[in-house]
Each structure stands twice: as C-alpha cells, then as structure tokens.
Amino acid sequence: MRQAFSAAAALAATFSLTASAQTIPKCGPGSPCPKDTPCCSQYGQCGVGAYCLGGCDPEYSFTLNSCMAAPVCKSADYKLTSLDGIESNTQYLGDASDTNWVVSGLAVPYQDKALLLTMAPDTVGTLLMSTHYVWYGKVSATMTTSQGQGVVSAFILMSDVKDEIDFEFVGVDLTHAQTNFYFQGITDYNNGDETETSNTVQEMHTYTIDWQPDYVSWAIDGEVGRTVYKNDTWNSTSNKYHFPQTPSRVQLSLWPAGLPTNGQGTIDWAGGEIDWDSPYMQNGYYFAQVQDISVECYDPPADVQRDGDSAYYYLSTEGMEDDVAIGDKNTVLGSLYATGDKPDFDPSDDDDEDSSGQTQAPETVPGISGGGSQQLEGEGAGEAAGGSGSGSAASSAAGSSPTGSTYGFTQGGTSQASTVYAGSAVALLGFFVAALML
Questions:
Q1: Which of 87, 164, 321, 377 is catalytic?
Q2: Which superkingdom is the protein from (predicted)?
Q3: Helix, strand, coil percent values for the chain (each to nearest 5)
C-alpha cells in the first residue's frame, strides 16, 4: 500500500522560502504568537483577521481567547450547483449564518450541476472549507477526482488542533481511495489504509466519513470499507487515545503534491512530479467536481460544559475532547484586523487606535505573502468543455484560463507557487525539515 500523508502537516517552512514570508512571526512548540499578531494559523504563522478564524490553533496562539469561537454543527444537504453560500477567504469574517463555505483558489460552477475545484500552473489549487464545524457526525461528499501524476484530490475533516480524518485520491491511482486519521497532527504511518473502488475520475462516487465518539468508518457509495475503533488507538506513552475527538471543519481540495519543491517522499507518493502540460488539464487547469456535501450532526459528548449553544471553544491547550465547551461566544470579527482578543477592532473606525507600535501591517489572511488576487468565478462562468462522464471541465466565460490563486491551505502538502507557499501543517514535521505538508 502506498504511504498516505496527513492533510495538515508541513506548511511553515515552505512559507519561509520567500523574503516577505520570513518577516511573518512563526508559531509552534515553545513559540506562541506575540500579542500584536496573536493568532497561530494552520501554517505555523502568526497574524490577525482570518488567522483568528477557522484553523486558528489555540495551543500556539497568544491566549486561548485569541482564536475566535467556532460555529457549531448544522445538519444540511448542500447542493453545490452555484456559488451561493460560498465566500472568498479574503472576505469572510466568521458569520456562518450568511456563508456555508469559504474558498481559497478558483471555484467554478459547472453546468448547474457541480462545482469545479481547479488547479492552474503556478498555483496551489483550490480549497473549500465549511464555516460550521462538526463535532461527531456523518459527512458525505459526492464528487469526482482529478487525474495525473503529482495531483491529489482530498476530502477531509480537520480540527484546529489538527485532529484529522481523510479521504485522499492520488491522480495516478483511479481505483483506490486512501483513508487516514491523525491525532493532533502526530505522524503515525500505521494509520493509513486504502479502499478499492471503480474509476474515481469518470464516475461520480459518494464518499462518507461516519465519525462517532467511539469509532470512525469510511464508506464508498454506502459500502463501509474501513472502521477504526477508539479503543484500539490507546497510546501508552502519552496515556491518551490518539483518536480524532475535537470539532472539525469539512474541507475538500485539489493540490499539487508533485511540485519539484516538495519533499521527495511527497512527490513519490503522488506518482511523480506534476506535468503542467498534461492532457488531463482542460481550459488551462486540472479539476475535480464536487456535486453534493451532506452533513448529519451527532450529539456532542453528554458531559460537555455548556453556557449556550452557538459556538465551540477551548478551555485549555491540551486539545482533548474534555477541553472543548459549547457556549454563545462571538464568532464574528469586526474587520480583517480584529482578533479574538479585540474582536471589534476596525482601523477604519476613528474610535479605534492601534497602540501596538507595529512598523508594518500584520498578515490578515493565512497563505498570503504580499497580497495577491483571490479568484472566485461568478455564476455562469463555467461552460461545458467535454463530454459528460469523462471528467469534463469548465471554461471561463471570458475565454481565458485562470491565472491562479495566491493562497496556500492545509490540504495541500508543501506546495510552492510563484507567489504563495503552502502545504499542510501537521503530519510530515519530521519528514520535511522546513516545509509543510498535506
């Protein structure tokens, strides 16, 4: 079986490859974020604004209150036939009542029946993230994957402390789905497995993660292919169950694991270096189709501490199930310069004064180094580009291929684009010295 990799592990070092990224404060074990940029992103960097929303790591942020509380689970069936309910990560401020999904990269509606996650040359692909978290539940994604060496499609659950449950699809293996799980981002290569299926590119399949407090199962088209029980994950060294147990976001992505700047192990796992002139690209990009995502919320632990019912938040940095509470804490920032410590701060408001003494503006959206343009194709941008059932793509209404995104994301190992450097920040720590991973 091929080695599977975590979708949250080795990002911080990849960002450090650019001069501008080197000026961003880093966070990690023994190095929490400073007061003026208090929020530790999944990439191991400190900032404000979106850094304090989904993916904000409470363990390495300035205080537990630096990260905003997370919107609680909402059962729903999301038909992804348009961009309704989807917002750019450069615009979203945490109001999950108005937005169901946040996107980084280029998402394109396709023939009113699916959403394309695209990946053009010199980009790190596209990531779609839920605004509501799941704390145990059944989540299904009906989708096709992308194809080609170095290309990886993924459907995962990821918590802010990097508990993780994965479906991963390598573009050179169209008849297997790789399954994996992680506890707090700790690498354990024994956690990976794979399930056989029919062609993942040409055929639409429904992939289901059934996450219960005492087990997790992976199913394809209703047939369970693997089950892991919590009781089998006891670690006698840490005296803890190394089992995913904290509120998580639903994430779907397409990312270039085969970039030559990635670790050789990642490239080999992905089937080789990515080919930006591949016949599997259409209209200038690789693509995966997502048709439907359904979420069925389960009850939270019976003994959970409650002082409300709208948001999850952490009581300590231990990151265990018992360290999560449910309350009515605020989830919405006043601006992209606000934080959990100063949630209403807005530099455009004359009444707000920034007394931090910073000599430069802090980073506000994880994965950006020196800005860049987020792309979110509007309704009607996608048009047919091929026959159905064969991974047909969409074309831009303007006739031009996407120029790419400048955003990195957790689901995407050590990806380095022309202006952005990304990966996944949890599992490949030892595998990449200074990079991030998937």
A1: 164
A2: Eukaryota
A3: 5, 30, 60
Q: Where do the domains of the chain lie, and which CATH numbers do they carry? A: 71-328+377-422 (2.60.120.200)
**At 344, which amino acid appears?**
D
pLDDT tens-digit map of 164-185: 999 999 999 999 999 999 999 9
The Cα 328–Cα 324 span in angstroms is 13
Q: Say whether 164 is catalytic.
A: yes
Q: Tell me the pTM.
A: 0.83
435 with 14: CB under 8 angstroms?
yes
- Cβ atoms of residues 2 and 173 within 8 Å: yes
Q: Give the DSSP per-residue string, 226-291.
A: EEEEGGGGEETTTTEE-S--S-EEEEEEEEETT-TTS-HHHHHHTTSS--TT-TT-BTTBEEEEEE
Residue-wise pLDDT for 235-286, tens only, equals: 999 999 999 999 999 999 999 999 999 999 999 999 999 999 999 999 999 9
Paired sense of beta strands 240-241 and 305-307, if any: unpaired
User: Model confidence at 414, in pLDDT bands (50, 70, 90)?
Assistant: very low
Q: Of these residues, 59, 168, 321, 377, which one is catalytic?
A: 168
